[in-house]
Structure formats: structure tokens, C-alpha cells
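Support reply, case 0932

Customer input (verbatim):
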Amino acid sequence: MGISFTVLSSGSTGNATVVRNEDTTLMIDAGLSAKRIDELMEQRELSGEELDGILVTHEHSDHIKGLGAVARKYDLPIYANEKTWEAINKSVGKIAEENRVVMDSGEVRDFGSLRVESFQISHDAAEPVGYCFYDGDEKLSVATDLGYMSDKVKQAISGSNVLVLEANHDIEMLRMGRYPWNTKRRILGDLGHLSNDAAGEAMSELLTGDLKRTYLAHLSRDHNQMDLAKMTVRAGMEDRGCFYKDSEFKLCDTYYDRPTPWDKVSEP
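Our regenerated output:
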């Protein structure tokens, strides 16, 4: 079966992704209400009873809004590093002790035949992380909410077959937008969010023969558009001599209001 995944929702209004293989199904973040997460899973013919656990990237509300409710409803373990646990304790409510699991940053853990590795990212949170998933020769990486693409992050996600990567904002749209300057400065900073331009620069280094698709994620509804993000990322790659055909590599959409279709990492 290999690795399959669906991005249930992506953006500042809420984030959740499901990754599964033949014997394990995991959710990354639960940043919407439990009811809404159930609705999104149902659209992909998935039930909460099929989940084996929830991996947490960081404590911001658009990543943990429904975390406690979903974990209690389906009696699921929650995996997060110690600093993130400290940051989410008051938000998630009562969680059974056996379901409060510490997974250190940089730790590699096997969930059945699905191997998961966390890696640290740069964001204004306690100890934010991204995740890589492995099954045999397949690799899926999820890296959003990062202010910049560090060499360590590039190293962690290199060799991916499919990548979920942040392209949060168009820089000029953000600068001209309605946010106060201190918020704009935070988003543009090294602890903020990855711009379309920064995503294009990163992709020019990450695109190898292994990488088949990149899903552009966590787009701002106020300061970005999917077509603009894809155009800017592609232009940034081409400006650095990185050309490709759609038959060889694809930039794919994510949505804030509906899930992406199930995607098999093994598919060309």
C-alpha cells in the first residue's frame, strides 16, 4: 500500500493532515473543531476510529483547536515534545496520562511499519517541528509554519518523494495589507511564515529526481492566492535555473475549506 495522505485543511483558519499506510493512520495537528474535522474526514471516507494518534507541530490555535476534543472522543495518544506539551496543557483539557506521549524533536519513532521523524523548524512557538514519514523507499515530508528554510530543514526533507511546504504570503500583498506593522514584521521575520518567494528559492534546491510533487500549504486568505503562489514559486525556481515539465514534477493545491484528494506517494 505504501504511504497515502490527505491535507484535510490548510491555512490560518485551521490545519490538519492525515497520513496512513497499510497498518497505521496518523493525524498531524487538529486545528479545527472536532465536528469540522469529522466532517472533513468523512469527505475522504475516513473515520476517527481509524486513527492511531495525533502528532503536534506546535501550540498555535490553528493547529490545536480541536486537539483535546478529538483525542478524547477517539481515545487517541497525542505526540509532542516537552516544551510543546507545556504550551498546550491548558488548551487541550484533560488527557488520559497514557495518551500524553513525549516525542522529542529529532526523534525517530516507528508506528507499525510507518516510520516518523520530527525535525525542528523556525517559528514563534515553544519548540515547533515538522515531520517526515517513511515506508520502505517512500518519503513524505510536511514543513509549514517556518520563518525561513534553514540548512537543517533542507537536510531533513531532502530526498522526499512528496513534500507539503508552506507558501504563506505574497510579500507585496502582505506589505500593502490591513495587518498592523508589528504583525507584518512578525510574519516576514525568521520566526514567521515562509513567503512564496522563499518557497520558490527553497524548491530550486530541493527539486531532485526523487521529488514528484509539492503541495503548497498554509496560504494566507488575505495575502495570497493559489495561482499566484504557484506562479511565484515556479518563477523562483526557473530564475535559479531549475526548469521542469508538469509530467515530471507538479505543484499542487491545498485548501482551507475542503480536503485534498487522497494521494499515494508511490504514484508518479
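We compared this against your earlier run and they match. Two observations from our side: The domain at 4-264 is CATH 3.60.15.10 (Metallo-beta-lactamase; Chain A). The CA atoms of residues 33 and 66 lie 5 Å apart. Please reopen the case if you see a mismatch on your end.
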